[in-house]
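Entry 12.
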Amino acid sequence: MKVYISVTNDIITDQRVNKIALSLQKLRVEIIIVGRKIKRKVQITSKPDKHKLMRLIFNKGPLFYAEYNIRLFFFLLLKKVDILVANDLDTLLANYLVSRIRKKKLVYDSHEYFTELPELVDRDFVKRVWSGIEKWILPKIKYSYTVCESIARIYSEKYNIDMHVVRNLPVYIRDLPKPGINIRQANEKIIIYQGALNLARGLELAIQAMKFIDNAKLIIIGDGDITADLQQLADKHELHNKVIFYERMPYDELMAYTAQADLGISLEEKMGLNYYYALPNKLFDYIQARIPVLVSDFPEMAKIVNDYGVGLTVNTSDPGQLASVFKEMLENQDKRKLWKQNLEKAAVKLCWEKEEKRLLEIYSEII
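Predicted 3D structure (tokens):
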């Protein structure tokens, strides 16, 4: 049995897609991942053997999505396939059409609340196009899952479908990797952000908060649409020694850096419901690295942090107030001791080895 998994990004660095593909191999199916070729500097070491990377003419905007779906449609139409898996709304159209023409099973893996992405909030026409595709296809989808309960509930109620939840949890790390580079100098404290450097991630606020903190660094690891803007902001406030940027790196190396930190942050802003209901990968990576977390006081993130007692939530747009929370979390040793104890317990429970059972149950029914 052949399963084709489609994504619009570079499959080499998509942790969720690769974890799911490797897990599905336990069901003795052949996995082929279809993505696009992107210039990159990092690779992951654990991925399925079979994949197809398409080199596209357009790499962003409407022409990119159109080109990708047209090419994906004809690629899948001519392949021997039993199950089609569409990752996110931007791959769904081609997969749906092929599934109808060839009468094949279709699975929808929604990584986020796509039509509520910050990039679409102020773009009415583009949002209407994606919403139209969603309204047309989702009610016809029999098999689907997403990353958190809130988004699953929205889709289930909106389209009268049974959408399951498969959270994007990391593989359990028993022994943290040793760092190749020591990012700490003397007794300074380390605050870390890892992930995409995009709009509404709260990074501007975090950078400005560093003006009010001594003997601490903010380490930002990743890249994205606003990388240059963030670097300019740090330069503007003369924070060269307090805000350090690292490019995206392989997961094992990333976790070696993260494990050195004293605090991990995920400060998404409420720009669209996608972030409001977000349950980001980095939150669980921080937990696996056994470092306390500070997250936006949004439903899904707050539930994890409060239920497992691994940090604090915050609701502020003031750099000075955020700096005060940073200081409290870095200096309150009683709280830090409790958080560390809870992190050990949470890391065992919030891992892919537990979560993949949900995934395999879904696909066992499909197969």
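Annotation: The chain has a mean pLDDT of 92. The CA atoms of residues 264 and 293 lie 5 Å apart.
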